[in-house]
Input
Amino acid sequence: MTSRPLAISAGDPAGVGAEIIAKAWRALRQDGPTFVVIGDAQLLASAGGGVKVRAVTRPQEAAQVFPDALPVLDIPVLSPVVYGRPSPSHAPQIIRWIETGVGLALSGAVSGLVTAPIAKAPLYEAGFQFPGHTEFLAELTAAASMVGARGPVMMLAAGDLRATLVTIHTALAKAPSALTTEAIINSGLVTAQALRKDFGIAEPRLAVAALNPHAGEGGALGREEIDIIAPAVEALRALGVQASGPAPADTLFHPEARARYDGVLCMYHDQALIPVKMLDFWGGVNITLGLPIVRTSPDHGTGFDIAGRGIARPDSLIAAIQLAAKIAARRGI
Output
């Protein structure tokens, strides 16, 4: 494990973020990865069912605090919080928590960033210009990003399934027109690089999903496979990636199929997320590839319908914390 703490941005204060962070700390405080929370200390204390919270001024203090109390870089919200009722008035603090976490990761003060869930609608009301967390993180890290193939590429991991996306937060009706051979090649290169560097797979095998039913039936059900996806697969092979496809998506996710690849490249959001959540709804992890920092997130939303009731499960956040620590250790951070 890395010697530096992870940072966790607290997510939407009206959701389950504070509760699952407190529960994750209880589960990991003795022998798990150390982390420091960026958020509202008072909110974390009240949402955590009596968890002890201690404000710190620097991430380096987290290691001494962590076994006995939840360390928090305290940036309070400036308006009342009502569980289950997100408000645009909280947007400045939510954004600042994320920006602070990214800054700490870029500076090397923390080994990576785990982001608790945010709700996009109230952020949009407050003027937020990005489709989601992933795209915002890409903008915040753009100046420090590597030259060449880069993210953001969203990967969802559950069990032995690692699925990445070519289009991310794109309306389904617009996804076909958003697909390009260049975007598929870039996503494939970033995925292959991450499988080697972050997951320790020396020669990763990448399956590439088709867009249309039956992989287009030779063009009868669409030409995207012929005109866009197949050329990208050939280009990836020429660049040294063990890529196969395009393959019909309905045959890619059963156990025997998963044994034939280390990662699968999906063309649109639900093509990846449905099988991941079917395989492990509670333990899936969202990883952003192609960034100069380690970033993971639980694979679920804000849980406004159950916020404040004490019943939110922390499984996915715990898995995200543990995976972020493993990736950081493999990178030598």
Summary: Residues 91-107 form the longest helix (17 residues).
